[in-house]
Automatic annotation (TrEMBL):
Keyword Signal: yes
Source organism superkingdom: Bacteria
Protein name: Insulinase family protein
Region (Disordered) location: 452-471
Organism: Alloalcanivorax profundimaris
Entry keyword set: Signal
Residue intervals of the Peptidase M16 N-terminal domain: 69-197
Signal peptide interval: 1-31
């Protein structure tokens, strides 16, 4: 029988399947094992060092599969746009569109021929470049070499800039036809104002046309510098191989040190109310404000408390009361989003226009009560069990681990952060949640931003009475 060599893509697919099956082997298989099983903190053996150029490296060896995940995380997100909203986003999008001696087709074909997957992303805090490849040297080394050229020496071709800018501007125009993006951006402005987090990192119709190739080069030279980069590595390579890969990538990046710290975002001094008039059958309402940041000692208490309030899906108080009991909304949820220099609390709901007033009134009442009193002990116990029960899944495969590594390195968290967080969750009390929410939120100083035919109003005479203002 003639044997044929498998392609890199088929090997990657087979490896992913094997990983999924391997995870099943660790599940409890008898009633006794289930009863004795206690949610375990994700165990990662993280190794860390710094390259000669100043890049921080985090590495987790994993021999389970013949794969390597690489992620470069830079302080190069939309908060670094300055007076050119969309600059970080366009820079990120154009990495991979051309590099010194390589066309976009050369780059795409180069990764594909090696069975590798390459991607970029841009967020408020960070720019991200990712590579997934097979760990065998004959494919890995070429893929890493190509990554180094692409991220280290991009050419930002004019035709690619024109194409991606046009696509971005078309997207912005389309956003005006649907309510969600409009109310999201209005909420961002209302919460952060003139802070670097306050502008739309996707850019504006006014800012995008003025961004040039030289702007992109300057941004890349400053914010994609080695000293401003975290290199995360997870996979089937040795420490010596990981050091060589990190050294090659670091040397390929521009010289330079870390970006300056962003100013800390401030809470609003008073309630902000804004309504956008839009002819829709639903009213979207966002409630929230600046509330937290990465490194906040209240993070575990806020996380667990929010799981009870609005982050736990159908088990959350907001869903049970506003959706299930009263039937006022199609969906309601909340979350904290900690970032380097701040982070909003965001409570969002969508409701039929006729129910908007009642939905807002009930939601604000629940939020005010939760801030004042916190959860019950039973609610807390159930939340802890659910949170800890799913924690192990957050490092179930390499793609999960690489995301955790990137965040730990980028936000300068301790290497045992995942284990510490589990211990903190287990230790959280009702009083901890109540006090943390009171430090983070003041119901009378939150932004209320809505979009729909008419501004929703809180009950007349109530403490939360507000008058919507059309913009």
């Amino acid at each position: 029988m003639m044997m044929t060599a498998q392609s890199p893509l088929k090997i990657l697919a087979a490896a992913a399947c094997a990983l999924a099956l391997a995870g099943c082997a660790s599940f409890p298989t008898t009633a006794g094992k289930v009863s004795k099983a206690e949610p375990a903190a994700p165990q990662l053996s993280i190794q860390s060092w710094q390259t000669d150029q100043g890049a921080k490296v985090l590495f987790v060896p994993s021999e389970a599969l013949p794969m390597l995940d690489v992620r470069l995380v830079m302080h190069a997100g939309g908060a670094r746009d300055g007076d050119q909203p969309g600059l970080a986003s366009l820079t990120s999008a154009l990495i991979g569109e051309g590099a010194e001696g390589l066309s976009v087709d050369d780059i795409a074909r180069g990764f594909e021929d090696r069975g590798a997957h390459f991607s970029t992303g841009s967020y408020q805090d960070m720019g991200v470049v990712s590579l997934r490849t097979l760990s065998k040297p004959e494919w890995r080394d070429d893929a890493v070499d190509l990554l180094a050229r692409v991220v280290g020496r991009p050419t930002f071709p004019q035709d690619a800039l024109d194409r991606l800018r046009t696509r971005a501007m078309q997207g912005l125009k389309m956003e005006k036809q649907v309510p969600g993006p409009q109310v999201d951006k209005a909420f961002q402005r209302a919460v952060f104002g003139d802070h670097p987090y306050g502008h739309a990192d996707s850019g504006t119709l006014e800012s995008l046309p003025g961004i040039t190739r030289e702007d992109l080069r300057r941004f890349h030279e400053r914010y994609y510098a080695a000293g401003n980069t975290v290199i995360a590595l997870v996979g089937d390579v040795s420490r010596e191989q990981a050091e060589a890969i990190a050294a090659e990538l670091s040397a390929a990046l521009p010289d330079g040190g870390p970006a300056p710290d962003l100013p800390r975002a401030k809470k609003a001094a008073e309630r902000v109310v804004e309504h956008l008039t839009f002819p829709s059958n639903q009213t979207h309402i966002l409630i929230g404000g600046q509330a937290t940041w990465r490194g906040n000692p209240d993070h575990a208490a806020l996380y667990v408390g929010n799981y009870i309030l609005g982050g736990g899906g159908f088990a959350s108080l907001l869903t049970q009361e506003v959706r299930e009991k009263h039937g006022y909304v199609y969906g309601v949820s909340s979350f904290f989003q900690p970032m380097a220099a701040g982070g909003p609390f965001r409570l969002q709901l969508q409701t039929a226009n006729d129910n908007a007033d009642q939905a807002l009134g009930v939601t604000m009442g629940l939020l005010r009560d939760f801030i004042a009193n916190g959860p019950t002990q039973e609610q807390l116990d159930n939340a802890k069990a659910n949170i800890l029960g799913r924690r192990a899944l957050e490092t179930a495969d390499n793609s999960d681990i690489i995301g955790q590594l990137g965040a730990i390195g980028f936000y300068d968290l301790p290497l045992d952060y995942l284990q510490r967080f589990n211990r903190q969750v287990k230790a959280v009390t009702v009083a901890d949640i109540r006090e943390a929410f009171q430090r983070a939120l003041d119901a009378d100083r939150l932004a209320i931003v809505s979009i729909g035919p008419e501004a929703p109003r809180l009950p007349q005479g109530g403490k939360d009475e507000t008058q919507g203002q059309d913009q």
